[in-house]
Amino acid sequence: MAIDIKLAIQSLAKNDALPIYYLQGSDYYLQKLFMDKVSKQFFGDEKPSKVLMLPDEMGGKEIIHRLTSTDLFASKAFFIIRNCAQLKKPFNDELIDYCNNPLMSHCVIIINDDYMAKTAIFKKLSKIVEPINTQPPHPNKIKQWVRYFFSENGNTANSQVVESLSNTAGDSLAHLAGEIDKICLWVGDGNAVEMEHLKQFTGWKREHKQWEFISAIAQKNLTKALSIGKTIISQNETMISLIYPLTGLFQELLFTKRNSGTFSKPTGYIPISASIQRNLPSYAKGFSEKKIIQILKYLEKIERKQKTSTISDESELIQFIYHAFS
């Protein structure tokens, strides 16, 4: 069982950096967050220097040589190893031997993007060092991360702020952290963040309304979809800007439909709101697979037509809503 990354960060703050860490999961933001925390603890006031080592570029011999080499001054060295499953014998065994007896002047972070990988080298690694979970968090954990990012900035936020940010910026931790950093910078260190502060940000208001519209489409709420749709299309949205999140919604609905009505994690390249992610199985029941495919083709048709047609965005949007609900 992998350690929760927040617990690993808390432990790191109270102790010296360890010579070996094993990250398990593909969330790049979490990987970078932890590596930055380790680097700061490991180097202290010294200038940090990190070396990325990839077996398909450097070869196993060079990787092992770098890991096991030191100078007369036992200078600190920080290594990041990705794709170590590509190491061939005898270098994969030599890496395991090194992890059993590492140099204390070195810090090595081994990253395995595939959380479910069961290859021999990862099984052996897990027996030497407890893995740290860097999987993308489940949607129901996003609120915890909102509170964590506020705490990291020295601010607090009430439950309404937490709920709003998890819905509007919770599609990825990188997006969420970036928004909270900007808000805290504006509010000031040590101050409580209120809904009034969020409303100062044009981007927040835009995304908030946009996802209210997407949610209305997912729920097949015709009255709400028409009302919000007309409002945002007359303010700061265009039909082209709405095609992107609408495509993301129906891609995930199609996947959910084909996955027997269950939802594991977002699979498309287009992020969707955390609140919508949580309700995908319920929303998917309102659309047949055939209808979802028709809608995706219709959105593609709108995108092509927008480049040559003079039809108004509002008319195009209304036509789309009636097509989706028919």
Structure description:
By secondary structure, this protein is α/β, with parallel strands linked by helices. The chain folds into three domains: 3-133, Rossmann fold (3-Layer(aba) Sandwich); 139-200, Helicase, Ruva Protein, domain 3 (Orthogonal Bundle), CATH 1.10.8; 205-325, Zinc Finger, Delta Prime, domain 3. The protein has helices at residues 5-14, 28-43, 55-58, 60-68, 91-100, 120-128, 142-152, 159-168, 173-187, 195-198, 202-218, 222-233, 239-258, 274-278, 280-284, 289-306, 313-325, and strands spanning 3-4, 20-24, 50-53, 77-82, 106-112, 132-133, 156-157, 192-193. It is elongated and about 75 Å long. Helix content is 58%, strand content 9%.
List its salient traits.
two-stranded parallel sheet, 6-stranded parallel β-sheet, 326 residues, Zinc Finger, Delta Prime, domain 3, alpha/beta, 9% strand, Rossmann fold, Helicase, Ruva Protein, domain 3
| Rg, nearest Å | 24 Å
Structural class: alpha/beta
CATH topology of the largest domain: Rossmann fold
Terminal Cα span: 47 Å
Supply the number of helical segments.
17
- How many extended strands? 8
Question: Could you report the average pLDDT, rounded to the nearest whole number?
Answer: 87
Q: What's the number of domains? A: 3
Helix content: 55-70%
The SSE string, one letter per element, is: EHEHEHHEHEHEHEHHEHHHHHHHH
Which overall shape is indicated by the principal axes computed on the Cα atoms?
Answer: elongated
Give me the CATH architecture of the largest domain, please: 3-Layer(aba) Sandwich
Supply the CATH class of the largest domain.
Answer: Alpha Beta
Main pleated-sheet profile = 6 strands, parallel
